[in-house]
């Protein structure tokens, strides 16, 4: 009996030293031997196999999938554990917690493209304003979670907006201390408060969607038991990725589209990068001869221009050739199944001033200041309203009036 046991232990020890046989060996043994003596054999075998393995198996969570039939899942990190009711190596003993927000109610704002979840004893309150302002409030404690849209007329990126909005008179505000975080894979800036109510428990100073609409999220806790719930509410905030959103022309798509120009016949189609394109002069020592173009980010209008039910884009390009000229043109990008398709351009003038651009009922409305008789190129003074419409393959002016 003793000799037979020694032979089995030697065999087990060799198999455990072989990584390919280790898991299989332990599983087979645990199925055949379920007594305390059997477990002792495994421990002895690992000791025979060499050194520190005994310590390694001291906190084993399972020996086979049989041990995992009625056990909760365990996340993999560094020991034997149960995952999907199977006993595998490289797992820690931390159990996966259930999603406590799974049965919560969901608030969806289709206009602004986001959704957020909240418990049954909380209510959504919409506050009338020019921008979105939503509160999720708990009447029993007056704690609430608030969502507000910020002003971002220049379509700044989140980082640009954050840097600009947290500096006043050249000095950083308290919000400048916010740290970058990610909420459902979307970058944001978070600021935690150490002050007592009515100050917010925490605030997301800024989080931006694909169209560079920037929102702030505030959590106001009136009792400590609501702190965890407010964090959970924040964890459910996400921008909606629906088909309609994917077919929109976003700022990223616009700034990295292909463009032509009506000011330089030598340039056909060029690919922009982050809203601009530069073609160096033929001779690096020349001051002129190159060409630069950029999208004016605060002069972009969205609307259906070709009656296909999709939002197209009318925008202003500004070009430089190395001299004193500053040339402006209107450019149309059609929405080609969510991709920007260059349509055409129309010259607006040299050193004119663009006040605004809009699209109404398929018509482009351009408010600008042009040169009157006697004006120098530097200083246009005549304000006019121009209206343009797409005809076949061109952009045509349909009206021109003084403002």
Explain what you see.
The protein has 403 residues and is α+β, with helices and mostly antiparallel strands. The chain has three domains: 2-91, no CATH class; 105-241, Mog1/PsbP, alpha/beta/alpha sandwich (Protein Transport Mog1p, Chain A, 3-Layer(aba) Sandwich); 251-402, no CATH class. Helix content is 18%, strand content 39%. The strands form seven sheets. A seven-stranded antiparallel sheet has the order 5-6-7-13-12-11-10. The protein has a five-stranded antiparallel sheet with strand order 17-18-19-20-21. A hairpin with a 4-residue loop joins strand 3 (105-109) and strand 4 (114-118). Helix 1 crosses helix 2 (19-32) and helix 1 packs across helix 3. Mean pLDDT is 80; it is low at 12-17 and 19-60.
Quick rundown:
The chain is α+β, with helices and mostly antiparallel strands and 403 residues long. It has helices at 2-17, 19-32, 36-49, 53-56, 158-165, 227-235, 243-246, 251-255; strands spanning 79-83, 86-91, 105-109, 114-118, 123-126, 133-138, 143-149, 167-168, 171-172, 179-183, 186-192, 202-208, 214-220, 238-239, 258-259, 270-271, 276-279, 291-303, 312-320, 327-336, 339-350, 353-360, 363-370, 382-391, 394-402.
């Amino acid at each position: 009996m003793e000799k037979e046991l020694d032979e089995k232990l030697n065999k087990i020890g060799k198999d455990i030293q072989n990584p390919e046989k280790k898991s299989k060996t332990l599983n087979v043994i645990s199925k055949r031997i379920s007594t305390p003596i059997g477990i002792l054999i495994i421990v002895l075998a690992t000791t025979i196999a060499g050194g520190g393995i005994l310590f390694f198996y001291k906190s084993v969570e399972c020996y086979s999938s049989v041990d995992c039939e009625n056990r909760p899942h365990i996340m993999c990190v560094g020991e034997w554990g149960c995952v999907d009711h199977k006993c595998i190596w490289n797992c820690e003993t931390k159990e996966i917690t259930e999603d406590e927000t799974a049965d919560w109610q969901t608030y969806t704002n289709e206009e602004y493209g986001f959704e957020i979840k909240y418990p049954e004893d909380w209510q959504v309150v919409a506050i009338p304003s020019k921008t979105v302002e939503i509160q999720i409030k708990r009447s029993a404690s007056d704690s609430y979670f608030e969502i507000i849209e910020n002003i971002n007329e220049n379509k700044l990126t989140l980082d640009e907006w954050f840097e600009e909005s947290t500096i006043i008179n050249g000095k950083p505000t308290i919000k400048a201390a916010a740290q970058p975080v990610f909420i459902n894979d979307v970058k944001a800036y978070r600021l935690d408060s150490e002050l007592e109510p009515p100050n917010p428990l925490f605030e997301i100073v800024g989080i931006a969607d694909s169209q560079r609409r920037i929102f702030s999220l505030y959590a106001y806790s009136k009792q400590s038991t609501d702190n965890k719930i407010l964090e959970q509410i924040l964890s459910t905030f996400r921008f909606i990725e629906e088909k309609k959103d994917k077919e929109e022309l976003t700022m990223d798509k616009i700034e990295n589209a292909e463009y032509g120009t009506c000011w330089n016949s030598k340039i056909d189609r060029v690919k922009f990068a982050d809203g601009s394109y530069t073609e160096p002069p033929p001779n690096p020592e020349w001051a002129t001869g190159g060409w630069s173009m950029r999208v004016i980010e605060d002069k972009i209008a969205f609307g259906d221009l070709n009656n296909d039910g999709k939002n197209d884009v009318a925008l202003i390009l500004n070009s430089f050739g190395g001299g004193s000229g500053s040339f402006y043109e209107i450019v149309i990008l059609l929405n080609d199944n969510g991709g920007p398709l260059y349509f055409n351009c129309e010259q607006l003038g040299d050193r004119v001033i663009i006040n605004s651009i809009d699209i109404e009922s398929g018509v482009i409305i351009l408010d600008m200041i042009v040169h009157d008789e006697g004006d120098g190129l530097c200083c246009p003074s005549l304000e006019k309203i121009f209206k343009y419409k797409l005809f076949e393959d061109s952009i045509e002016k349909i009206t021109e009036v003084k403002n």
